């Protein structure tokens, strides 16, 4: 039986790599993103509309998400896996200097968009009594750092929401996994630094970071575990990343 995976934010990074990984094994792919041109290229690369259903979608648009993901066309209408990957990060300024519009954009995408996609797809999974929701969190949701303020808070939401979904789904065969990557080299940091590619590249230079294909492989692994096994949460860092001592600084 051919299975179907729905991936939000599939035009780059983790989402794009995951689409390629699963399509290579013959899965149907529902790919959502805002960038139409990239979706078109991905669809063509992965075999055309017979294999990929591309949905141009802004995850902040509740009505569009609920309508388009809640009523997918056959044969894409019964997703076996939902990968809640779409997310953004903006800025590293301290809270009192941050742009509130950027805060709202992160909440609307990372929190609300994830909620909308889950609510659109989950009833069908429960009715069919099978499925897997894979949420892309971050170590930022667990480990605070300067400038992480709202971005980290949105990822803390992802962790708690994933756990609460597991509680709600007790007694069904629907699985939920929260993945929390650390330093990863994708387009995310270019967005974080508002298009400053050099500043983004400086984070990774010489540090051998996680790359998108690494996360795609992990998603593939958790999905293909025996159906009675659920990975609740997984924290993932490159070997070059770890924790430091808690900082102490004189109060001015």
Describe the structure.
This protein is of the alpha/beta class and 252 residues long. The chain has one domain: Rossmann fold (3-Layer(aba) Sandwich). It is 41% helix and 16% strand. It contains eight helices and nine strands. It has helices spanning 13-23, 36-45, 62-70, 100-128, 149-168, 188-192, 197-204, 212-223; strands spanning 4-7, 28-33, 52-56, 81-84, 131-136, 174-181, 184-185, 210-211, 233-236. A seven-stranded parallel sheet has the order 3-2-1-4-5-6-9, with helices on both faces. Strand 2, helix 2 (36-45) and strand 3 (52-56) form a beta-alpha-beta unit. Helix 1 (13-23) packs across helix 8, helix 3 (62-70) packs parallel to helix 4 (100-128) and helix 4 (100-128) runs parallel beside helix 5. The mean pLDDT is 94.
Portion in strands: 15-25%
State the share of residues found in helices, binned by percent: 40-55%
Model regions low in confidence, pLDDT < 50 over at least 5 residues: none
Q: Which sequence of strands runs across the widest sheet?
A: 3-2-1-4-5-6-9
According to CATH, what is the class?
Alpha Beta
Taken from the alpha-carbon principal axes, the silhouette is globular
| Average of pLDDT | 94
What is the CATH homology-level superfamily? NAD(P)-binding Rossmann-like Domain
Distance between the termini: 65 Å
Tally of contiguous helical segments: 8
Count the E strands. Answer: 9
Output the radius of gyration.
Answer: 18 Å
Largest sheet: 7 strands, parallel
Q: Give me the CATH fold name.
A: Rossmann fold
Give helix and strand order, one letter per element, not per position: EHEHEHEHEHEEHHEHE
Q: What's the domain count?
A: 1
By helix and strand content, what is the structural category? alpha/beta
Which CATH-level-2 architecture?
Answer: 3-Layer(aba) Sandwich
